[in-house]
Amino acid sequence: KPPGLLVVDDEEAVSGYAEENPVRRSGGEDLAYVIYTSGTTGRPKGVMQNQRNVINIFIATEGEFKFDEKDIWVLYHSYSFDFSVWEIWGALLYGGCLIIPEKEVILDVYKFAELCRDKQVTILNQTPRAFYNFVDVIVSNGIRFPNLRKIIFGGDKLSLDRINLWWSIAQNNTVELVNMYGITEITIHATYKKLSPDENPFIANIGRPLRSAKAYVLDFNNPGKQVPVGIPGELYIGGLGLARGYLNQPVLTAERFLENSFATEQERACGLTRLYRTGDRVRWLPGGELEYLGRTDSQIKLRGFRVEPGEIESAIGSFEGVAQSVVILRDTGEACYLVAYVVPINKKGIVDISVLKTWLSHQLPEYMVPSVIIIIDEIPLTVNGKLDQKKLPEPMVNIDKRKEQIFDTLVEKEIRLIIEDITKLNDFDDDLDFFQLGIDSLNVVKMKTKIFYKFGLDISLKLIYENFTLSSLAMCVSSLMEKENTKVSGLVKKIRL
Questions:
Q1: Contact status, residue 47 vs residue 34, Cβ threshold 8 Å
Q2: Which of 185, 227, 184, 178 shows the shortest CA–CA distance to 205?
Q3: For residue 180, is pLDDT > 90?
Q4: Burial, 315: exposed, middle or buried (Cβ in 10 Å; 0-12, 13-18, 19+)?
Q5: Is the confidence at residue 496, as pLDDT, over 70?
């Protein structure tokens, strides 16, 4: 029969198929998937991972996690992010259950938390920022997870002081929190660190290498030399799990996947002769664990995704009327977003920001489209000819700089305070698009939660997205309050601050 979609719960549809397992035609070296990551040249890199590596990552972590057929996983991450490979096959390879939520549930932290509780999820995987929001919601709503066994972090740097809320409700709790470091090129994870409440919050401890991996911290200027304990260097990973390379990019593959001059005779006999140059700065801690220090290049992490600003700048540069641009990451603590500074071809040139953003949304993944675009006359440089980031204007975007803010209602005042709390910005126009302030999907969820606690309204995410300015959202909330006969003390016309 020709290939197609088979509805397996339809007995008549499957009756003509063989009852035995089909003959296996693939082997361990055959590709399992290609996942694209951001590229330094402006061209995305397709990472080719084979089937053996997917199996090996679970063999390597079997002793630490002890997954089994009783475990219930939830697919929280997009299949374009390799954390999803861990979620999908962690469930299926052990005969467990995989819950696949609707997108609306993923975007709504409260609904996602309820789903994890109601479906008795035992294994939860989260990027750090997603978990910070998750904890805020479960603490505020008293949601508990009696079946949860493990929470596994990955995809970004974990701030240990941000998970104190979890420890405050986890007394006598058997849930294990695990921090893992990994990159798509080395099959999801390479290190393991079981966390405890007494960890040093000022050290980003990513733990020890997994049994399948070998970590080398090499001198920045002399990669043939390993650095001593406590000295920063660049992290190189060897052992099992290294990808085949980058799809149709042999030169780049040769630059990042290098000959392992430290390999033992036994490793060479097993074919473990390569190292992957991660581009991450780390150092060995005295106890044999690794501390993550940041990137060695311009690559950044945003919502769990590796982003190369040069790729975004390349896309902006191909837009009509743009001479040059620079893209940076702004992090306020609560909001983390991309800002693009754009120089027109000539000073009289006009670049329509809204048109540019719409155009970029068709060229780049959603997470790579800058939240804020600012037009400037020139890119500020240091005396050495490098970007002088300190001289770039702060993204305090405002069309109307009013020293005296006037609010039609108390509702509008409270909505503004919510936005200011999330973005750490306090000088913006009432009709400015939220997303130009750096608010992303995670912040929208946080906004929904704050509106609930301030006004007692369970506003839908859809309504927030449809009313994406201060004035519009305030009117929407006021309308909902009137329908539900919700009273807010002091609701008046015209309040001056």
A1: yes
A2: 178
A3: yes
A4: buried
A5: no
Is residue 300 within 8 Å of 307, Cβ to Cβ? yes
pLDDT tens by residue, 106-121 = 888 899 999 999 999 9
Is residue 418 a contact partner of residue 403, using CB atoms and an 8 Å limit?
no
Written as one letter, the residue type at 149 is R
Q: What CATH number is associated with residue 470?
A: 1.10.1200.10
* Mean pLDDT value across residues 289-306: 80
292, containing H or E segment: strand 290-295
pLDDT value of residue 493: 29
DSSP per-residue string spanning 105-157: HHH-HHHHHHHHHHTT--EEEE-HHHHHHHHHHHHHHT---TT--EEEE-SS-
128 plus 270 within the same structural domain:
yes
Q: Is residue 399 part of a domain?
A: no
Answer for the pair 229, 284: CB distance below 8 angstroms, yes or no: yes
Rounded Cα–Cα distance for residues 342 and 321 (Å): 10
Q: 418-448, pLDDT tens digit by residue?
A: 988 888 777 677 777 777 677 877 888 888 9
Report the domain count for the chain.
3
pLDDT at residue 49 in the model: 97
pTM of the predicted structure, to 2 decimals: 0.69
21 inside domain: no
